[in-house]
Amino acid sequence: MYYPVIRPRRLRLSDNMRRLVRENHLQVDNLIYPLFVTGGRNIKTPVAAMPGVYNLSIDLLLEEVAAVQTLGIPGILLFGIPDYKDATGTGAYDENGIIQKAARTIKDKYPDILIITDVCLCEYTDHGHCGIVQDGDVVNDATLELLARTAVSHARSGADIVAPSDMMDGRVQAIRKALDSEGFTNIPIMSYGIKYASAFYGPFREAAGSAPQFGDRKTYQMDPPNAREALREAEQDIAEGADIIIVKPAMAYMDVIAAVREKFATPVAAYNVSGEYSMIKAAAHMGWIDEAKTAMELLTGMKRAGADIIITYHAPDAARWINSV
């Protein structure tokens, strides 16, 4: 028997009633906040395409980390803006590189905050690609050693989790082997296992200065129309030792998040990327949408799709919105 005996609206008639039967709950515990760190002191350079996001020197980064910890956000994801770039991205694995310095400083002052470090070469290479370039091609296997060196240097500097984002084949295995051989068997790998060659990365590339100087990244990042390929990528990374799988971007790929969640027991992270963030900021600035309601609806959608972790530039605001309820 259906209507009028069954009336779904009965369970929607008040805020407390809706809270009582709510199926998905976004929590501060689900959030990771990405941060950009640069050299110098007292540097706070706004990223024009990402209102509210800055390139921060380490002294000001510490203030941001303190705020993150106060809000209850469990961790941060660090991206480095190096002082120099070269063909092989030596700044990525320099023991005195910007990420290495930042991780040591943060861990010394805020030992409980989870430090996740982006492991890639694109911010550190003068050509802007995520690997070594030979004869105009990004070569896979020669890049793996440098990624492994980068991950080990991050672990040695205090990183709690390393997150390879390069999309080279076999990099999880190379990193796991290198970490284990150096005694870092307890450092998890949060792999960008499913990273699409997306149009949503533009504002990030402005922030990190990582736009490729020639060509594009379509030969190593995934083709946006593909979903079955995503499951193959996730399966391979898990087999190689990935502890967490990232799906990036999130908004246009919630079906992929759901498919990965259904097939694998491994924790899944959704990366709510720069372009997604900037669209909400721009529309809110124009008065076309309510920023808080729209952002929270989108982030909750990622959670509903199956994400255990959400990496988002909205994290501090989202934490405040959640805590104010």
Quickly describe the structure.
With 325 residues, the chain is an alpha/beta fold. The protein has a single domain, classed as TIM Barrel.
Task: Walk me through the structure.
- The longest helix has 17 residues.
- Strand 10, helix 8 and strand 11 form a beta-alpha-beta unit.
- The chain has a single domain, classed as Aldolase class I (TIM Barrel).
- Helix 3 runs parallel beside helix 4 and helix 8 runs parallel beside helix 10.
- With 325 residues, the protein is an alpha/beta fold.
- It is built from eleven helices and twelve strands.
- Strands 1, 2, 3, 4, 5, 8, 9, 10, 11 and 12 form a ten-stranded mixed beta sheet that branches. Strands 6-7 form a two-stranded antiparallel ribbon.
- The mean pLDDT is 95.
Approximate helicity band: 25-40%
| Name given to the CATH homologous superfamily | Aldolase class I
- Radius of gyration, in angstroms, nearest whole number: 20 Å
**Largest sheet properties:** 10 strands, mixed
Structural class by SSE content: alpha/beta
Shape label: globular
Number of domains: 1
Compute the number of helices. Answer: 11
Q: Termini, distance in Å?
A: 37 Å
SS strand fraction:
15-25%
SSE order: HEEEHEHEEEHEHEHHEHEHHEH
Average pLDDT, rounded to a whole number, is: 95
CATH class: Alpha Beta
Uncertain ranges: none
What's the architecture, going by CATH? Alpha-Beta Barrel
Q: Count the strands?
A: 12
The CATH topology label is TIM Barrel
